[in-house]
Amino acid sequence: MNLIEPANPPSRKAPLVWAIGAAIPWLLLAAGQLVWFALDQRLLWVHTLAAAATALGIVLFVVVVPLWRYRVHRWDIGPNAVYTRTGWLVQERRIAPISRVQTVDTERGPLDQLFGLANVTVTTASSAGAVRIVALDSHVADRVVAQLTDIAALGGEDAT
Amino acid sequence: MTVEAGQAWQRLSPRMLLVHPVHELLRQIPVLIGSLVLGSATGNPMWALFGLALIVGYGLARWFTTSYRIGADEVQLRTGVLQRKVLSVPRNRIRSVSTDARLLHRLLGLTVLRVSTGQEAKGDTAFALDAVQAEQVPRLRAILLADSLAPAEEDANEPGRELARWQPSWLRYSPLSFTGLAMILAAVGLAYQAGVVAALQDSRLARSGLDAAERFGVFASLAVVVVTVLVVSVVLSVLRSLVTYGNLVLLRRDFAGNDGVLHLEHGLLRVREHTFDMRRLRGGTLRSPLLVRLFGGARLDAVMTGVDGAGEASLLLPPCPRATAEAVLSELIARPDAVTGPLRAHGAAATRRRWTRALALPAVLLIAMVVWYSWTPVWLWPIWVVLTVCCALLAVDRSRALGHRVDAEWLVARAGSLDRRRDCIAAAGIIGWTVRQTLLQRRAGVATLIAATAAGVKSYRVIDVPAELAWTIAGSASPWVADSDWARTQ
Question: Do A94 and B478 touch (CB under 8 A)?
Fold first, then answer.
């Protein structure tokens, strides 16, 4: 037996938001290095090395990782389970039964609000079993939450 | 169910008026020393007396400010001298009741009673009645567990079936633990802090010791020290094990109409009792660390909702003969084949990964030693050989350990060498599956399957199963995976 991949990709804006989120700390670091270079120009090779490391980090985390994550991230909701695929270097596929769902949370960070995105977290009684669907368009997230709470309300068993 | 105690707030045992001040004094030793110093510095002994009075007064106040109430739907505990706090626990959430009596409590006939729920309660949020009279405990236990268990009064007095009883021969596994060594290190640390070492540095004792060491030679004295530490550590480990687990009894009480309870009692000086609700049992873990395994031993942990999976709380049997641990677990989960049956091995890729990992350190060392050949001392080479052999043995043992077994009712996973564990998890308790693959795992065609439960340590891993098997395992244990829209038979 095998499980096919979940069907739905995250929002098209997801890579952009992830890239901006990753760019902020890296650009701060780059700005810090510029200030350092302006104040102290001895040890040129250290500056070069640090600049190269920062450039490499920016290319990796601002360009490669968001695109990679966008290719991997998928989610789907069936009549009795919620199923996601996440990650980039380490990839995870996680499935949880909706009858055992305890809470459904929606969460929007500042960047998410700016671009109209939302993250949905589905928790069960196990701390190892929470399913997170990240970077959905707001209206999709609302629909997902409504759908999940509808199905979850049907099952009345003790969720442990 | 109505409770005779009714809705009234009740105080803890008045004997705590003796215990609290003593405990406070022990806890506030720094304050006491501070006030003594202040007293001698200002030449006014009243400071020391004032400090003492304050601490004793606080201890007494704790009794007057603590009360509990067993209501129809919840139990409440009101505490706090300065900051008042009310802790409420819904009665139908109570999963287990445990008791604990330290030496001072025992002398006064008192017992601490702890209530544990599904939530993870730590420190201040744990519901503990510290302390009630020991003779009240059976009645309180029956009342507190009543909602979840409903045992009739006469059932509560029934002795129950004995699953295991401590035997002196179990002591042979205890010298193999590090508890003795840890106790010695703690004692040395304490001595350092108290300034004993600094005081010894110039004393006649230290000088005569050094003289003796010079006469014997460095290696001889070092050997004497090592042997002494080893002997003391073994003696301490055995003593601790005897004091903690001597007289351990594990009982099972069955009540008409439900699964009954497990009752664990142990401790010679500090008596501890745990009562577990059998309906919350989701399996068990047989753990056999390398040294214990060499002597044919194993310890048993319960996998239960509402009971912390790691450490003392979930312990059912300390290191004991493997057959005993297996027999008890078989009895608890009623499936001997899950406990002792053969496992399906994880194949060549998983074995290769164990070897790569074990030999990584020796390989790096070898490269370093070859590159800096002229700086490498000769004695490093035999050490490297020994290390490599040990790592190879570890790889063999770890790849032999890997295995799983699954059917519609039980998931069994075994892994590890230094700390080998065999987890037996009830399929009904699994509320989520994760298939995790790192880049290297994807290239090797294996995956780590993680079963999420609300019980024990919450996540149980089946390490490095062939990738195409991962969802098959999940599907055989959980019908909701096999019946989902995404399942395809290959």
Answer: no
